[in-house]
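Hey,
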Amino acid sequence: MYINLSCNKETNLKISGTYKLLEKDGKYKEKTYCKIDKSLYIYKINKSKYVISTKLYSESYRVYVKLNKSDITLSKNKWNIYHGNDLWIQDNVLVTECKDFKEFYECKEIINLSNSKKTPSDIVIVYSKYTNIDGGYKKMTKKCYGSTVYYNEEDQKYLYKLRTFFSQFWVIGNNLGSYSFFFKSDDFDELPENSSFKSSNIVITPYVESELYNNTDENQKFIDTEFKADFHSIGDGEIVNNLKKISWVRCSNLQPMFSKMVLFHNVEPNDIFQGCVGDCWLLAAFASVAEFPDYFKTKIFKTKEVSKIGKYEINLFDCSKNKWITVTIDDRIPCYENNRYMPPKPLFSQPHENEMYILLLEKAFAKIAGSYTKLDGGFPSLAWIVLTGCQNIEYWIKGNSDWSKSIIVGNKNDPWNFQNVSGYGTREKCKYENMFMYLKNCDTKNYLMSCAIHGDVMEKKRDDGLVERHAYSLLHVYQKNNIRLLCIRNPWGAGESTLDWSDSSSKWEEYSEIAKEVNFTADNDGKFWIEWSDFLNIFDEVQIACKSF
C-alpha cells in the first residue's frame, strides 16, 4: 500500500511525495511509511503523535501531527512544520491512500518518479559517530563497477560500489576500488541512500540545503565571562597541539538536518559518546546515572528547557563545602572547523541526535575543573560524588582469590581535581564465588557501578574487543539458573566484547528466552553482555556508589 502527502507550505525538506507502507509495524503498533526515495520516514513518536523524520524512530523530527484516530490516513488535524528559529507553521496536509503504486504513477497530480528514482544525487550526506567518516560526499565523474563514485574532500574518503562473485555493495574507504574499507552496506541499490547500512550504524541521505544553521544575534545571548570561549578553556597538551581551528558554536545551532535542538528526549545510557579527550571515566559515570532518566532532569538541571539566551544552571555537589552549588554556563560548545554540509561537530562529547544535556553537563565539569583537558583521566567515583552527593563509594580490587574493598572519599582540599583520588582501605574481602551475588544485590538496590581492566598502556585495545585502562559502566547483573551475565557499556558508543554472549554470539539464539528477558538487541552502540567467568578473568576493579535511585 502507498500513501501520498501533498503539503501547501512546503519547505526544502520536501515532505510532499509518495510513501510506501513498511512491512513492520512501529513501536506503538502503528503503520509506518518510507518515502520511495528513502529520504523520509513516517511513524509514531508516542501514542497520539505521528512525525516525519530522516531516520526511522528518531527522536529528532521537523514535522508532526496529533491524531484523534490511530490511522494517519484518517487524520483531519493540521500538521505542524518547523521553519527554524522555534517557528512551527500549521498546514493542511492532504493524505491520500492507494493499494497500488500504479494508480499514483498514472495520476496527473503526482510527479512521475520513475525517471528520477535512479538519478544519482549530486551530494549525499553520511551520518556517522566517527568524525573521519561523516560529512558531505560529492558525485564524481569517475565510475566504479558502472556506478557513481562519491568523494569526501575534507576527510579524503570515497563512497563507491564493490562487487564480489556472490554480491555487490557500497563501501566507504580511503582508496577508490580497494577491497580494504571501513564500512559496507547490508544490501545494494544503484543509489547509496537507498541501500541499508544498519549493521554499520550509518545513515546516508541526499543533501538538501537547510536554512536552520544560521547564527542568531549574539547580542541577545548570555556569555559566561568566567569560562570563556577560547583556548584557555580547552586547556593544553597534545589535544590542543593537534587542533588546527576551533569554532565555538551555540548548542541551538548543532541540530541535525531538519530538526531543532532539545535539552532532553528519552534519557538513556546510549545518549553518551566520548569525544577527543580521555574522559571515559566521566561519561561512564553519566551513563550509569542515565539508567535513572528523571535524575538529570529533576536534580541536576535547574534549567528545565532550552534557554533562548543560552544560559544554563546546573546543580553539582561540592564536597569541600558539603553542599550543592549552582554552576552557571553558556551553551557555546567547542567544535571542529565547520563542514558546510553538516551541523558543526563538537570536539568533546557528542550529542545523541539533537539532545543537548550531555554537552552542557560535560562543559559544567570542564568549568569547575578549569578546562576540558583537565578532564583527561579520572575516576567515575569522583564524578558520582559531584553528581549525587554520595560519599560512600566502594572501590573493589581483584586479588588472587578474593576482592578487597576500599572506600573513596572526596578530596575536600581539592574537590575539582578528578585525577587525585582519596580514600582508605578496609579489612573487608569478598570471595570470587560471592562477588557476583554482591553485585547483583547492588544492581537490585539501583546502585551506580563501573568497572575497568588494569594495564600498562592507557586505553589499549585487546584482541577480545575490550580496552585496558578504560572506564566502563556496569549497567545490569542477571542470573537465570547457572547462567550469570553482566551488561557493560563502553562510553565510546562502540567497541564491544567479542567473547561469548557478545552481540554476534550464537548464545542469544540458543537461549532466546534470556534474550527476551533482558531485551537484547544486536546494536553497534558500545553496550554488550559478558559471562561472569569471563568478567572475573579479565576485569580488575569495580567501583560502586552506594546510593539508591
